[in-house]
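Lab notebook, bench 4. Continuing the backlog of folding jobs that were queued last week. Each job is logged with the same field layout so the records can be merged later without manual cleanup. Today's entry covers Regulatory protein SIR2 homolog 7, a 367-residue chain. Filled in by technician R.K.

JOB TYPE: sequence-to-structure
TARGET: Regulatory protein SIR2 homolog 7
LENGTH: 367
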Amino acid sequence: MAAGGLSRSERKAAERVRRLREEQQRERLRQVSRILRKAAAERSAEEGRLLAESEDLVTELQGRSRRREGLKRRQEEVCDDPEELRRKVRELADAVRNAKHLVVYTGAGISTAASIPDYRGPNGVWTLLQKGRSVSAADLSEAEPTLTHMSIARLHEQKLVCTACVPNREYVRVFDVTERTALHRHQTGRACHTCGAQLRDTIVHFGERGTLGQPLNWEAATQAASRADTILCLGSSLKVLKKYPRLWCMAKPPSRRPKLYIVNLQWTPKDDWAALKLHGKCDDVMRLLMDELGLEIPPYSRWQDPIFSLATPLRAGEEGSHSRKSLCRSREEPGPEDRGAPRSSAPALGGWFGRGCTKRTKRKKVT
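JOB STATUS: finished
OUTPUT FIELD FOLLOWS
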């Protein structure tokens, strides 16, 4: 006799009864689900009685259906009609002119015009991976700043927007440094020229928090946010940024928080907080905004791109530490560091969305 008062055979019999009940419940759930998929006029009298007897299951299944439909709607891209978009841009332009301290938060959506994939769009990295489809790295060697990038640069020149996060000038590279990195594994395989410490990339993967002082510069970003009276979000789902309450001045009473303007084709968790939501592509919105502000968007020139003067070249012996294509000054004539560099024909599995896109599974300790 067991300590609980039941013998082994009695416990096994009770377990069989429990499993039988669970299977009957699952079968009942499947039956109700099949009936609910039918039109009301197509249901038989017996099916109607089954639904009436299973009110709890009907309520649960209808709730699941509403949640699925809500999630589906949130993933859909919505575009404002041209006239509505122009009206909203005029309102945004007034906000930019009157802002005392404007801060801009950007996401992957500002680069899709350069054929660089975003994360949560219909063909985004996370979207494809959730569907079980493979994702290969985009070739960034020929990508150029978009109209949105250049518009933000001009707004900064005109002192209309604050720039808080500046790059670490010492180790800017002209190639993708995430080849060997992943979630919680940020070492690039190269070392500091001065102290020999391992260099790390500055990617913040989903599920991580930015902890580096530079070049992520969270301290300066939050200081800028604390002074902001207007925030403009461009091309970001805000799924990660919403985790940082200091960026939204949540410690302040609602009346003193900065006004929020969002440019995105999809739903974001901050939509209900926004003073204005613009459903449009970033380049389209910024083109209209710059026209409203009377500012010319500067053309992009690789020969004037500061990344080439800020970049730190590889040291001797580091040439084989990456296989990604490097940016060149000219598409027709590769830079000196690219001549003779091997080119791999295999698709590159980027750490920023390859191995780094999912959390590592726990491994059992070997004893």
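OBSERVATION: Residues 332-367 have pLDDT under 50 and may be disordered.
SIGNED: R.K.
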